[in-house]
Structure formats: structure tokens, C-alpha cells
Automatic annotation (TrEMBL):
Species, as recorded: Halalkalibacter krulwichiae
Name listed for the protein in its UniProt record: Phage portal protein
NCBIfam families: portal_HK97
InterPro entries: Phage/GTA_portal, Portal_HK97
A Pfam family matched in the record: Phage_portal
Length: 406
């Protein structure tokens, strides 16, 4: 059985190991597990990866007349349904997008006409060069259940062209993590009510220690908040205000959420409802598609075109594309208005409009045209005057099939 995946033949017998080589894996100071504990990061990664993982990928061919045709191909099932014997394609796509965002690169391993995800944190690239400028050979060292060396024709690389947010936004993520840990520390260790205990007499070291431990056992921690304070004779309590607003914790949190949304290139309103800038759901989704999802799916499409298509298929006009229509879901009102506008403009037929609204077709289909328009043929430059039922070409007018001079 011929392989469903066509890979370029690798050059054998050439010794690159005597030439210079370098490793391309950047050093990260935070792990995926650490940053995914930040709610804004978790929400952003989940939003982007889940949105892309639900999108189907299709194989198309562009004909010489620029028309396109969707192809029926076994590779589509692997990309949309069963990636391998254990993982669905949706799970694989989600993992790929997470690695792409956080590590800057994602890796897929091809074996037996199946695709397997290789965690980017476990992959190291080794590039070999003969001239010190161009790459002559690439290998991948994967650390999994054992150390495995993979050749370049066994691995699909989806490259963002960056080092990933763990590196590029490392300082911001460290600040967000530190702020979260500080807030948790305040709740866990803060003695509530917070304040100073004063006494009219001098206390011994042992007495101060016993008083401190007694106060902590009674009032420290968020679960002890609101308890009634009982003071012994001679003790006076002076409260200290530790409100989050006065400590600027609330404002700092808002700024960090806004900055995290910015580095992920998503509208802040999608992870923070208080920051909604768009009145239309469609506009919100359009911004998300164009600025965030678009570059990612383009990188995935390019990697699939490069690795899963033969040279003949590429030259013929084959290409992989995501169907992004699901990301442009609108409100019912916006959907009806958009479809109605396309119908009135003659771009779609009546049944095509009903199909977009999930309605059954009528027996006789038709297009809606306006008699007030003049149609010009893009091929012959012939004019059709609808309200006069006439056509004109080079000064001659055709009236209901009769030829005559203008």
C-alpha cells in the first residue's frame, strides 16, 4: 500500500557531521505547568487552542480559471478525525496550538500514515551546515520514554518565527505569577483583623512569643476572618488597613490581564467581559480571527502544504485550508441581515440563502436582480440594460432579439 503522506526523498550518503552544527532550542525560565496556573494565560490558551481545534481542514485544488474544488482525500480523515490509534485530530490540533503559542514551535511525527504530537519541550533541533550560512541537514532529538533521533522527513514543524511566549513574554508572565502568589500569600498568612497589639507594661520575650502564637492560631488565615477579638486586660488593638485597592493590587491585576491579552493577540473582552469594545459579536470574532487565529492557522496550513503534498500536487494547485466559518458566528439578527444583503445583491440564490439559515430549499430556485442596474460582461464588455431589456455592444442595441442600429 502506498503511503498516504508523500514526503520528499532525503539525501543519503552525505557526511554533514564534520561540518558546523548548532542547536536552536531557546532557554526558558518558566514551564507550561507554571504559566497555566495564571487564570488569564489559561483562559487565553484554552480560547485559542479550542477555537482552532474545532475547525476542519480540507484539501482543495485551484483550477486554471481560478475556481476551487474541494477534494476527497484519505489525508483529510487523519487531519480531522482519527490522527492515530489513541488520539483524535481535535486533541492533536489543540496540543499543537498550545506548543506554538508557548514554545514558538510545534512538532508532529508521522508514522504508518498517522500523526503523533511531539511535546515541544521534549524536542531539540540540531542544524548542520556546510557553508556556515545555509542549513544542509536537520535532525530532531526527542526525549520521551527513551531518547530518539528523528530525521527531517519524519517530522512536521509548525514554526511561529518566534521563541514563544515563555521566552518573549517571560518577564510579564513572571510578574503575573508573582502577583498571584503574593495575593495567595496575603490570604493564607494575613492575620485578620490586621493590626498592632499594644500593652501598657513591658512583656518578656516568652510572653511576647506566647501572645504572637496565640494571636496567629486564633486569627491567621482567610478562614479566620470576621472572628470577634477578645483582648486581655492591658492590651490595645490598633488596626492596619490592608485593602487591595489601597495596595493597588486590583489595578495591577487589571493591567496584567490587559497585557496578557495583548501578547496573545486576542480582544481583551474575550477573557475579561468588563473590557468589551465591540457592540457586535461578529466584529469581536472578526478581530479574533484576523489578529490572533489567522497567523496560526496560516502557519499550520503552510507546514501541511510543505510536508504532505508532493511536488506534482503543489505545481497542480493543491493546498490545505481550514474552514473558519465557525469562528464568524453571528447573532441571529446579524446573520439574517448578512444573508438578506447577499441575496438582494445577487451574490447568492434564494435556496443558497435558505441553506445559510438552515432552512429547507424551495422547489424553484432563483436569483434576485435589480432592474435599475446595468450589467457589463467582464469577458466581452457587452452591456445589458435590465429595465429596457436591451443589450449593447459597440453601438449596436439588441431589443428582444431584434438587431438594429443605435
Amino acid at each position: 500500500m502506498a503511503s498516504l503522506f508523500r514526503w520528499g526523498s532525503k539525501e543519503k550518503g552525505k557526511d554533514y557531521f564534520s561540518t558546523a552544527f548548532f542547536n536552536t532550542t531557546p532557554t526558558v525560565f518558566l514551564t507550561e505547568e507554571q504559566v497555566m496556573k495564571i487564570p488569564a494565560v489559561k483562559a487565553s490558551v484554552e480560547l485559542i487552542s479550542s477555537s482552532i481545534s474545532q475547525l476542519p481542514i480540507y484539501l482543495y485544488i485551484e483550477h486554471d480559471d481560478t475556481s476551487t474544488e474541494k477534494m476527497d482525500d484519505p489525508r483529510i480523515s487523519v487531519l480531522n478525525h482519527e490522527a492515530n490509534d489513541f488520539d483524535t485530530a481535535q486533541v492533536i490540533k489543540k496540543k499543537v496550538v498550545q506548543d506554538y503559542l508557548l514554545r514558538g514551535k510545534a512538532y508532529l511525527y508521522h508514522k504508518d500514515n498517522k500523526l503523533h504530537h511531539l511535546p515541544a519541550k521534549s524536542v531539540k533541533e540540531e542544524l548542520y551546515t556546510e557553508d556556515g550560512i545555509t542549513v544542509a541537514k536537520k535532525q530532531f532529538n526527542y526525549t520521551g520514554m527513551s531518547n530518539v533521533t528523528l530525521e527531517e522527513d519524519e517530522v512536521i514543524v509548525i514554526d511561529s518565527g518566534t521563541d514563544g511566549l515563555l521566552v518573549d513574554a517571560g518577564e510579564l508572565l513572571k510578574s503575573a505569577l508573582a502577583q498571584q502568589e503574593y495575593s495567595q500569600s496575603i490570604l493564607s498568612n494575613g492575620a485578620l483583623p490586621a493590626g498592632i497589639l499594644q500593652t501598657a507594661t513591658r512583656l518578656t520575650e516568652n510572653a511576647m512569643s506566647r501572645l504572637r502564637e496565640s494571636w496567629k492560631s486564633l486569627y491567621q488565615g482567610s478562614k479566620q476572618a470576621g472572628k470577634t477579638v477578645i483582648l486581655e486586660e492591658g492590651l490595645e488593638f490598633k488596626p492596619i488597613t490592608l485593602k487591595p485597592d489601597e495596595m493597588q493590587m486590583t489595578e495591577t491585576h487589571k493591567i496584567l490581564v490587559s497585557e496578557i491579552a495583548r501578547v496573545f493577540n486576542i480582544p481583551e473582552s474575550m477573557i475579561n467581559s468588563a473590557a468589551n469594545k465591540y457592540n457586535s459579536l461578529e466584529q469581536n470574532n472578526l478581530q479574533f480571527l484576523q489578529n490572533c487565529v489567522g497567523p496560526i492557522i496560516t502557519a499550520i496550513e503552510s507546514a501541511l502544504d510543505k510536508n504532505l503534498l508532493t511536488r506534482i500536487e503543489k505545481d497542480t494547485g493543491f493546498y490545505f485550508r481550514f474552514d473558519t466559518s465557525e469562528l464568524l458566528r453571528t447573532t441571529e439578527k446579524e446573520k439574517v441581515e448578512t444573508v438578506s444583503s447577499a441575496l438582494k445583491g445577487g451574490l447568492i440564490s434564494f435556496n443558497e440563502a435558505r441553506h445559510k439559515l438552515d432552512m429547507s430549499p424551495v422547489e424553484e430556485d432563483y436569483f434576485v436582480l435589480s432592474l435599475g442596474n446595468v450589467l457589463k460582461s467582464a469577458k466581452t464588455n457587452e452591456l445589458t440594460i435590465l429595465n429596457l431589456n436591451q443589450t449593447s455592444n459597440g453601438g449596436e442595441i439588441n431589443n428582444n432579439g431584434q438587431e438594429g442600429k443605435d
